[in-house]
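User: I'm putting together a small comparison set for a docking exercise, and I want a reference complex before I start. The sequence is below, and the ligand is protoporphyrin IX containing FE. Could you produce the 3D structure with the ligand included, as structure tokens?
Assistant: Of course. I'll restate your input first, then give the structure tokens for the complex.
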Amino acid sequence: MAHGDADAGQLTPRSTFYDRGRFGRLFPTLPPFSADVPLIRDALSELGAPGGPMDAQDDLSDPVTLITDPAKSAHNPNNPTLTAGFTFLGQFLDHDMTFDPTSSLARAQDPESIRNFRIPALDLDSVYGGGPAVSPYLYDQNVDEGRTTFLTEEIPGSAAVSIDGNARRDLPRNSQSVALIADPRNDENMMVAGLQQAMLRFHNQVYLDVAADLGTAYTVDETFAEAQRVVRWHYQWMVLHEFLPRTVGQTTAQDVLDNGLKFFDWRHNPYIPVEFSVGAYRFGHSQARPSYRGNFGTSTTDLTQQFFALLFKPTATNQADPDDLRGGRRAPRRFIDWQTFFDFGDGRVRPNKKIDTTLSSVLFDLLGQAREARRRWRPGTSSATSPWRYRPARASPARCRSPQSHQATCPTCSR
Ligand code: HEM
């Protein structure tokens, strides 16, 4: 689905302070890198075009050799400190902090209503939703009347194609395969969907442990609240002690812990700066590799039994079980074996891609959605790290009401 359509800066109010949930600016007085003129837009469009300088120009003919043949990773150098799974952990964290679903890609947006639908804190609202009372469809109604335990579902047929012969689990889905989760973006690809599912199951296990510890002196609601606290604290510990230092470096992470924040200032409640959501935190897009080994299938050594695939393959024909790693589907082979994504000490883990100025070629055509997105998110003048920058829709009625014949010459329409 379309998401992340926070405007890149031009339209965002220039005040530093916002009520909770809104996007704001970290550097409200900083002048733009350049005036917004057609020449600059065209130059930047070229920079971000498929085949342009930002395109890693991967040979997408074979998802296996993209991983096993180092020559094919010349444009996707390894990151020595991060393993492959950190990309999707970073994406999962993003979805916990920032979400602007209000402006569909085809609609002009009111700048005053750019609202962040995530609480800008690492509180897992992308997992818990509004809690059992407000988001009952997330919770298993057969356990404690839906007040304590997340719903997950078995993938029929998965045991026959998994290395240990055990059935694997999936996010709960409605009859049209849409995941029943608090943030739809966490079903965008199989890896981030797997992390969402891992978090659901982690909560369920913690709930059982906490319930056993606390005993019957506490209500199920109190026990749920305690389990939620334990889950959140573990998650925050992981972000602080693993994700952050490995991503920004131990020295920088320690400096923030020792000396506090230098630029992020908020008055009533924290907000998400557009410099973060539209700019800096999109660094993760450059970490995505063109292909991954989703799982080992029935063999740890025979590559033909394993599920390798491109992250996205727009030409995949089987819509029920496409030959790529997109989310939104349930089929026997659509589950993740995490050994190549995170380090379990068994020598199977694969490195992440270095954070750099290129994007894997698969990201230049995100299954149709990005064709539209790309038209409107161009390489940015206001942020050095954002691959895309918001560009209002062409000939939007809100911007120009002239007849179509006039649009080619109108400076507003022809931009
Ligand atoms: C791995 C595959 C990923 C895919 C396919 C993906 C795709 C997208 C798409 C389509 C958008 C919305 C369109 C746009 O705003 O340009 C978006 C937004 C965004 N992405 Fe990613 N992304 C991925 C990973 C990541 C990672 C690893 C990070 C950070 C570590 C990240 C950070 C962001 C942020 C901050 C936004 C804006 C969110 C908002 O405010 O609503 N993404 N991504």
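The pocket of protoporphyrin IX containing FE is lined by residues 3-6, 87, 90-91, 94, 98-100, 188-189, 277, 281-282, 284-285, 287-288, 366, 370, 373, 377, 388 (CB under 6 Å). Residues 7-31+55-374 form one domain.
User: Thanks, that's exactly what I needed.
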